[in-house]
Amino acid sequence: MKVIVIGPRGKMGKLITQVAASRDDMKLVAGIAPKGRDYVGMDLGTVAMTGSELGVPVTDDLAGVIDSCDVIIDFSTKEMAMEVLDLAIAHKKALVCGSTGFSAEEMKRFEDAGKQIPMLYAANTSKLVNIMNKLLELVTTTLKDEIDIEILEMHDQWKKDAPSGTSKEMGEIMAHALGKELSNIAVYGREGESPREPGTIGYHSLRAGNIPSSHTVFFGGMGERLEITHHSYNWECFARGACDCAAYLDGKAPGFYSIKDVLGL
């Protein structure tokens, strides 16, 4: 499978490149940098610090190399992701996107892309996070209005969007288990006199240092509390998951796929 990685110097793009380079079922054919970066023209292995040169260029012209690939893996920025999406559709290339911070209208564009290309969107490509999502659905479906639900998510100081895409996905799963829409019941932080409204899902975002992704969901009952937590020690688990998602799309028909399809959940 011939792979193009978007943003190979970013924290995720670098790891995805390293993982893809180590896999026998993948061949890297290009890395795509944002326009005008000083590493354009360098070898992808050097840019992503794989330990050796790969004989593959880094360019800022996706249109010029896109026809050489089978799949694009993009964990860059929401702005760059929309440009990548348009080119993937135009050239009929499979796309894995893990960027976050999109509006509802932008997410609809990814869903609609599934009518033309194999499209896989995943806010979080960790296997354990997605198993956690199944547990959240189970607890919420079982207990419904007997519990209060609060989400605490922690990330590094550089993360742009809040709450995280992963925590939004968790909230949507639990809201649907309650028969509701997250947009109608989400509460973002509290200040001053702010009593808890029954049936809402509370969000709290912490940004500090180089904290990797961390999510805890609190289910508060009377006299007891259940906490379900996932901590990532680094971003390697997400990079491995991203490459698994790309491999899953090999030979797939157009469609809007998710990490659940990859993991059989």
UniProtKB/TrEMBL annotation:
Annotated GO MF terms: 4-hydroxy-tetrahydrodipicolinate reductase; NAD binding; NADP binding; oxidoreductase activity, acting on CH or CH2 groups, NAD or NADP as acceptor
Domain Dihydrodipicolinate reductase N-terminal: 1-124
UniProt-annotated binding residues for (S)-2,3,4,5-tetrahydrodipicolinate: 165-166
Residues that, per the record, bind NAD(+): 7-12, 98-100, 122-125
Main subcellular location of this protein, as a coarse class: cytoplasm
Keyword NAD: yes
CDD domains referenced in this protein's UniProt entry, alphabetically: DHDPR_N (cd02274)
Catalytic residue list: 155, 159
The protein's annotated pathway: Amino-acid biosynthesis; L-lysine biosynthesis via DAP pathway; (S)-tetrahydrodipicolinate from L-aspartate: step 4/4
Catalytic activity field: (S)-2,3,4,5-tetrahydrodipicolinate + NAD(+) + H2O = (2S,4S)-4-hydroxy-2,3,4,5-tetrahydrodipicolinate + NADH + H(+); (S)-2,3,4,5-tetrahydrodipicolinate + NADP(+) + H2O = (2S,4S)-4-hydroxy-2,3,4,5-tetrahydrodipicolinate + NADPH + H(+)
GO biological-process terms attached to the record: diaminopimelate biosynthetic process; lysine biosynthetic process via diaminopimelate
Record domain Dihydrodipicolinate reductase C-terminal: where: 129-263
One of the record's GO cellular component terms: cytosol
Localization of this protein: Cytoplasm
Entry EC number(s): 1.17.1.8
Assembly mode: Homotetramer.
Similarity annotation: Belongs to the DapB family.
PANTHER family: 4-HYDROXY-TETRAHYDRODIPICOLINATE REDUCTASE 1, CHLOROPLASTIC-RELATED, DIHYDRODIPICOLINATE REDUCTASE
Function: Catalyzes the conversion of 4-hydroxy-tetrahydrodipicolinate (HTPA) to tetrahydrodipicolinate.
Name of this protein: 4-hydroxy-tetrahydrodipicolinate reductase
Gene coding for it: dapB
